[in-house]
Amino acid sequence: MSIVIDSNLAYLQSRLNLSAEKLELYQGKSIEEVIEAEAAAGNQLAIQLAEELLTNVNLLIEIFKLADPNNKFIILMNMNYQQLREFLPLMEHEDLVQGLMFFSQDKLLSMLEHIPSEQLVKTVLEMFSEEEVIQLMPENQLDKILTSHELDKDKVLENLKSIPPEYLAQILETALGKEVETKNSVEMVNQINNLNPLEYKDALTSLQPTQKQQLTLALTKENPELYQLFDARAYTKMINTYKQKPELVKAMNVIETEEIIKMLHELPNDLLSIVITQLDTEIFAEQLMDKHPELIADIIAG
What we know:
By secondary structure, the chain is an all-alpha fold. The protein has 23 helices and no strands. Helix 3 (31-40) crosses helix 4 (44-52) and helix 14 (165-176) packs across helix 16 (197-205). It is rod-shaped. It starts with 8 loop residues before the first helix and ends with a helix. Mean pLDDT is 90; it is low at 1-5.
């Protein structure tokens, strides 16, 4: 592990009270070599500095220029997968989300299909209005909602009253296999209510697409949890057709941090290291001291 220390020689000169001659002598040397040489020569400042590097966060940041993401990256690239993962919960949510840009759109959509349904819905509704979701949703998905056992039948019947009577007559005739005598909406809705389960299902699924969308939208507005009944694959196909990766990643900001971290676990070590370079420098240094003092020793050794 090697962090170039040329920019730190001035600090070492000041901290260890080095002469110009010694400074020239130490050109190209590692931090450890400089400190060890000075300590061996009886420089008490060097002995003190060696001890502080393992306990003083600000000193660690200063001497290794940890505010520079490149220096963080050099350190991180010497860590294993498990060590890198320990940094992710320390990061800001927005920085974690930006790390998703390293994935392809196909990969992001695949991962979206495996997050909790309520978080997927929140992500979708960041990109599409409720009306757009229903309009773009395949008809078989609307049928899935309208025939779900989780749907309140009374709510369905109430909203059917807003469907034009000619369409109610049409679905009743489809279900019953004969012409409907009445054209009164209330009476027809009562007849739909009295259909057996199979006939009832046939009646709802035979609605014209526009009317089916109207009914589904009314029901989802009353009960937004119904959006979770749509297949995840239907949502990701919609996203893939109409949105680009930057829009998708921006929308994924609503996903819980824990789920974002799970996604980032799938990045290779080099890309994961780049993501972690965005971690607050002081927190980064504290994590090194608390969890990886051996790495600090390796850095000092050069």
